[in-house]
Backbone:
């Protein structure tokens, strides 16, 4: 196969598989949480309820796509597209296996951070364009939360970059051949994990949509597939953060016996399940607690991690 | 890469024109974000991926979110659009347009007199940027960090809690 054809196949393949995994997560999450809570979960449609997903998609597509008359129409339509675009773009830099991956940028890690900061706009603009008080409150919470947690999301990765000596995700994986970064960067790992949950605004950090106080937060006014985009965008975030944790701290595709792609899949799957477990087990903090926790605990921890890593590298 | 560069430049110029002509502040901000993204792409096409990433992260990702956040808090609504319309009649653009045209002519004359100034671009990797920053430009980095520290102290001072008065 010639070079351009090969990259086209890889791009389409990665997009298709990523989308499939993301959609399957909706079913997987419901089943797994049901197990943990001693329920059965969706099990009526098809074997193990697998077709539930397709039923849900058909339902979403055929619902009335309503734009409220008081909304800012162009921005209202744009907002859900941003989260999907930014999320799917990030998959371009993830190295799935030694030879599988769309592009190996020498700024791969920065590209991921840049795209995740673009994702903020989706929630913020969605909340603003809806022109309703609950949406606006949700959007403002999202802006403050994601902006704060982005700061030490980047800082927590500085240690990894210092150890690997590169922003390229492929180089970072290769640098973990003699030991995963989760051991020397345990603190950075914890900070990144928590920042990742906040960045995808998943439970317990789902204050932008906190249904017990804000109806549904920023997507209160959304319906049909526009709501579907926000909904799926959240699962894109989960898959993305899990894949990033795997790449940055758990040696990516590295591992004995099994093929590289399998190792990458297993590790990513583990963290996706961890996301579900968080949702199933933790209560939502109060908003000021969330912000104080971020700035007064996570930021100093990320700084400390960077300082210690730097001192260690300088001494070596 | 050349086509990508010119496409991005065209988008940047178009978006910037939209920024200054929009009445709705949030729409103007959206175009400004688009313009910054286009500039980032231009940097990338010129062979400066690190600056491109920083442009998106810092300007489009952090500073503009703060702008949007503040404007959302103010929640201007239709009144703001009306005010903007009253303040910005088309004749307001005449003065700045003439001044900008002079600058453009100046630039064109300079470029025409010295065509060799557009040298062959080369890719600058992140490591080269860091080496330059912490080598010959160390003083500038330290000065910038001092400036940021001053901003931090100022923000802390403004945001501090007022001590409770005795006879209130």
Residues:
């Amino acid at each position: 196969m010639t070079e351009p054809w090969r990259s086209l196949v890889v791009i389409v393949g990665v997009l298709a598989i990523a989308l499939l995994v993301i959609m399957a997560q909706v079913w997987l999450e419901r089943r797994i949480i049901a197990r943990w809570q001693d329920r059965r979960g969706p099990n009526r449609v098809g074997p193990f309820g697998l077709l539930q997903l397709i039923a849900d998609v058909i339902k979403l597509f055929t619902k009335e796509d309503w734009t409220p008359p008081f909304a800012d129409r162009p921005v209202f339509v744009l907002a859900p597209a941003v989260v999907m675009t930014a999320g799917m773009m990030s998959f371009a830099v993830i190295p799935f296996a030694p030879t599988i991956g769309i592009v190996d940028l020498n700024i791969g890690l920065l590209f991921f951070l840049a795209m995740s900061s673009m994702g903020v706009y989706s929630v913020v603009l969605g909340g603003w364009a809806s022109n309703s008080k609950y949406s606006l409150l949700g959007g403002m919470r999202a802006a403050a939360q994601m902006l704060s947690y982005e700061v030490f999301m980047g800082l927590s990765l500085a240690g990894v970059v210092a150890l690997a000596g590169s922003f390229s995700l492929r180089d970072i994986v290769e640098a973990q051949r003699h030991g995963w970064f989760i051991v020397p960067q345990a603190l950075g790992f914890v900070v990144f994990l928590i920042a990742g949950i906040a960045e995808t605004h998943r439970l317990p950090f789902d204050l932008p949509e906190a249904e017990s106080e804000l109806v549904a937060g920023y997507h209160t006014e959304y319906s049909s597939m526009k709501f579907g985009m926000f909904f799926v965008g959240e699962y894109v975030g989960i898959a993305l953060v899990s894949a990033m944790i795997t790449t940055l701290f758990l040696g990516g595709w590295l591992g004995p016996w099994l093929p590289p792609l399998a190792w990458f899949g297993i590790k990513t799957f583990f963290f996706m399940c961890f996301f579900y477990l968080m949702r199933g087990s933790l209560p939502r903090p109060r908003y000021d607690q969330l912000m104080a926790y971020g700035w007064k605990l996570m930021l100093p921890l990320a700084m400390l991690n960077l300082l210690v890593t730097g001192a260690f590298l300088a001494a070596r | 890469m050349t086509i990508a560069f010119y496409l991005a430049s065209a988008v940047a110029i178009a978006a910037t024109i939209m920024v200054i002509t929009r009445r709705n502040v949030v729409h103007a901000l959206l175009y400004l974000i688009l313009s910054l993204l286009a500039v980032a792409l231009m940097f990338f096409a010129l062979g400066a991926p690190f600056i491109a990433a920083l442009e998106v992260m810092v300007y489009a990702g952090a500073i503009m979110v703060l702008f949007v956040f503040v404007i959302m808090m103010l929640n201007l609504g239709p009144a703001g659009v009306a005010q903007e319309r009253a303040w910005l009649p088309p004749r307001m653009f005449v003065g700045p347009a003439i001044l900008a045209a002079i600058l453009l002519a100046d630039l064109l004359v300079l470029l025409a007199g010295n065509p060799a100034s557009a040298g062959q671009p080369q890719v600058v990797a992140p490591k080269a940027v860091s080496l330059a920053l912490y080598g010959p430009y160390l003083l500038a980095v330290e000065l910038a960090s001092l400036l940021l520290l001053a901003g931090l102290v100022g923000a802390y001072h403004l945001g501090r809690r007022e001590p409770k008065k005795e006879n209130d």
The interface with chain B takes residues 72, 74-75, 78, 105-107, 110-111, 113-114, 117-118, 120-121, 124-125, 127-128, 136, 139-140, 143-144, 146-147, 150, 154, 166-167 of chain A (CB under 8 Å).
